[in-house]
Design brief:
By secondary structure, this protein is mainly alpha-helical. The chain is 78% helix and 0% strand. It has 2 domains: 90 residues, no CATH class; 98 residues.
Length: 189
């Protein structure tokens, strides 16, 4: 066998062993933890496995940034749920749900980098928007603001319109910059 074949076989074996170790580690973790429900650990493990499988598909299918996005997103959600189940993070998912928006924003960055080999404004602007949205929602989820989210939207809705307009202008500027002689993002495979 040549070196490339040996590398592929080794990579597949390492992937399978990694999944098995994650499974058995979670099973042993279930047996040793006190005060933690088995369902919470299994739920976290499920998201990590889905993320690992998406990462596998992102690697196997060349230039599949959507798989990398989902891999990053599910791994972040899984690790958050593990840390929450272990009570390392002092709040539950019912309070920390705005982190899903933050995770989506963070997952856009490696997906964009994988697709284009560089940071593109078409991925950075929505990523920052998702992270900011998650941070704003966290303020209301943890009751850090002296008013409700409904009150915020009723009084500050023009600011939301301005921010949406700013996001669209930034995306447009990034797209127009690429159209001036350089190949566009759509022309790349």
């Amino acid at each position: 066998m040549d070196r490339l074949t040996v590398r592929k076989i080794t990579a597949r074996i390492a992937f399978i062993i990694g999944l098995l170790l994650m499974f058995f580690g979670s099973a042993f973790l279930l047996g040793t933890l006190e005060g933690t429900t088995r369902f919470s650990v299994l739920r976290a493990f499920f998201f990590v496995i889905i993320g690992a499988l998406c990462a596998f598909f992102a690697i196997k299918l060349n230039k599949r940034s959507v798989y990398l996005f989902f891999a990053t997103f599910f791994l972040l959600v899984g690790f958050f749920l593990f840390l929450s189940a272990l009570r390392i993070i002092p709040f539950s998912f019912s309070r920390g749900w705005p982190l899903l928006s933050v995770f989506a924003g963070l997952a856009l960055l490696p997906a964009g980098w994988h697709r284009f080999g560089a940071i593109r404004i078409r991925y950075v602007v929505p990523a920052v928007a998702f992270v900011l949205l998650g941070c704003i929602l966290m303020i209301f989820s943890f009751h850090l603001a002296p008013f409700s989210f409904k009150h915020f939207v009723i009084n500050w809705w023009p600011l939301l319109v301005v921010l949406i307009g700013l996001i669209l202008v930034l995306i447009s500027l990034g797209t127009n910059k690429n159209n001036s002689g350089a190949p566009t993002d759509a022309s790349k495979p």
